[in-house]
Amino acid sequence: MTSAAVAGTIGGWRWRHLWRRARGPIAALLLCGVVLLEAIVIATYARPIDPAELAPPPGDADWIDLEQVPASFVAAVIEAEDHGFWDHRGVELRGLARAAWLDLRAGRIAYGGSTLSMQVARLRYSGDRPRSWGRKLREVVWALRLERALDKRQLLTQWINRADYGNGARGLTAAARTYFGKPVAALTDGEAVLLACLPRAPRAYDPFVHLGRALARRDRVLALLVARGHLDRAAADRAAAPPRLRPR
User: Fold this and answer.
1) What pLDDT does residue 178 have?
2) Which long-range contacts (CB under 8 A, 24 or more apart) does 18-24 make?
3) Mean predicted confidence (pLDDT) in 128-148
4) How far is CA 169 from CA 112, 161, 175, 226, in A?
C-alpha cells in the first residue's frame, strides 16, 4: 500500500471516529432546538397565564414571601439548581442539550436539564406524569409562559413554596418544621443550605436516612457559595457544623 493510500485510510478512520463521537451531541442539540422552537411557537400563541392561578392555596399558612427567606438559602438554590436563573428566559438550551445527550446514551429519560422555571412548571402543571420528552416539551412551554406572567422573584417564590423537600414537606416552611422543628426565620446558614439541597433528590438526600450523603452535597454547595462570593470562609466553616435534626 502506498503512503498516500495509508494516509487516506488513516484520515478516513479519523473522520469516522470524530463523527461517531460527535453525532450524539449533534443529534441532542438538534432535538433540543426542535423542542425549543415548537415550545416558543406554542407559548407565543397560547393565552397568557392569569397570575391568580399561581396564588397561594386558600388557607395555606405555610406560604412564605421571598423577603422572609434566608439569603443563604436563596444563593444555595440558585448555585445548586440553576446558576443562570437571573439571566435566562425560562429555558437553558445548553442544559437541555446535555440532558438529551445523556438520555440518548442511557437509552431512557434519566436526566433533567430543567431550569427553576421549568421546575415550577412541573410542580404546578405536570404533577407526577412519567418522565418523557412529551412532558419536557410541556414544561418548556409552561416555563416560557410563566416567564411572561411573573418576574424572577415571583418565580423563585413559587419554587420555594412548591418544591418537595421529602418526608411529606412541601414548601420551605414545612421543611424547616419537619427537619429542624423551627420557623424559617430561625434557620442557620448551615440548615438553610442543607434544605436547599433536598429538592434535587428528596429520597436520596433524606437527612433522616442518608445524612452523610446529604451533608456531602451541602458541603459542595457551601464551597460554591464561598467561591462565588456569597459566604466568606469563616461563615462557611460555621455552616459546615453537624446539624441538629428534629427527632423523628
Assistant:
1) 98
2) 24/101, 24/104, 24/105
3) 77
4) 22, 10, 5, 28
